[in-house]
From TrEMBL:
Family (UniProt): Belongs to the GST superfamily.
GO molecular function, one term: transferase activity
Source species of the chain: Pseudoxanthomonas composti
All residue ranges annotated as the GST N-terminal domain in the record: 1-81
The protein's name in its UniProt record: Glutathione S-transferase
Ranges for domain GST C-terminal: 86-207
SUPFAM superfamilies: GST C-terminal domain-like (SSF47616), Thioredoxin-like (SSF52833)
Length: 207
C-alpha cells in the first residue's frame, strides 16, 4: 500500500495526488505540513531530512521530491504515455519537468509568498515586481512551446510535463499580478481543466 505524507493544499502534494488519480492508484494520505502534523521533528526528518512534503512510502522505499515521486509512480505502473521509455522522448519530458522545478519555481517564489501567503519576509515591493516580471517571462517560454499546434507540451499526448506545469500555471493564473495575454497557455490550461484529476487537484480554487 502506498502512503503519501503531505497536506492537500500543497502544490507539490497536489502533483502527486493528481497523478495517483490518473493512475487509479489507491493511497493512504497523511496530512503533514503547516497547519497539520509537524514536519520539523526527528520522526519526519527520518523520512525526509529537508522537512518538506510530499514524501511517498511504497513498502521499503521512501521517496521525496515531488517530480521524482511522479517519475517513480509512472515508471512503476509502466505508463510510457506519461513518461516515455524511449530515451530522447523521455529526456524531453524530464527537461520540462526540471525546468518547472528550477527556472519557473524560482521565478514565482517571491511574488507568490508576498501576494498570496502574505509572508512578512517577502514584503519588498521591488522584489515582488521583479519576481512577477520574471514569472511572466518564464510563462512566455511555455507559451512559445505550446504554440507548436499540439494539444500538450510535447505533442498530442498528455505527459508528466503537462501535469507538473499545469499546477504551476494554475498558480500563475490565481496570483494577483499583472499578466500578459498568453493564448496558447490559456487554451492548454482549458484542456487540462477537462481532466477529472485536474478538476480535483488543479483548477479547484487553490493557488
Amino acid at each position: 500500500m502506498l502512503t503519501l505524507y503531505g497536506k492537500s493544499p500543497s502544490i507539490n502534494v497536489r502533483k502527486v495526488l493528481w497523478l495517483l488519480d490518473e493512475l487509479s492508484l489507491p493511497c493512504t494520505q497523511l496530512d503533514y505540513g503547516s497547519g497539520f502534523a509537524p514536519v520539523d521533528t526527528p520522526e519526519f526528518r527520518a523520512l525526509n531530512p529537508n522537512a518538506l512534503v510530499p514524501v511517498l512510502r511504497d513498502g521499503a522505499l521512501t521517496l521525496w521530491e515531488s517530480n521524482s515521486i511522479c517519475r517513480y509512480l509512472a515508471a512503476r505502473e509502466g505508463r510510457h504515455d506519461l513518461l516515455p521509455a524511449e530515451p530522447a522522448r523521455r529526456a524531453l519530458v524530464e527537461q520540462w519537468m526540471d525546468w518547472q522545478a528550477t527556472e519557473l519555481n524560482s521565478a514565482w517564489r517571491y511574488a507568490f509568498m508576498a501576494l498570496v501567503r502574505r509572508s512578512p519576509a517577502h514584503a519588498d515591493p521591488t522584489q515582488v515586481a521583479a519576481s512577477a516580471a520574471q514569472w511572466n517571462r518564464q510563462m512566455a517560454i511555455l507559451d512559445g512551446q505550446l504554440q507548436h499546434g499540439a494539444d500538450h507540451v510535447l505533442g498530442q499526448d498528455f505527459t508528466l510535463a503537462d501535469l507538473v506545469l499545469g499546477l504551476s500555471t494554475q498558480r500563475w493564473l490565481m496570483t494577483p499580478i499583472e499578466r500578459p495575454v498568453l493564448p496558447a497557455v490559456q487554451a492548454w490550461h482549458g484542456r487540462l481543466c477537462q481532466r477529472e484529476g485536474f478538476q480535483r487537484f488543479g483548477c479547484n480554487g487553490i493557488p
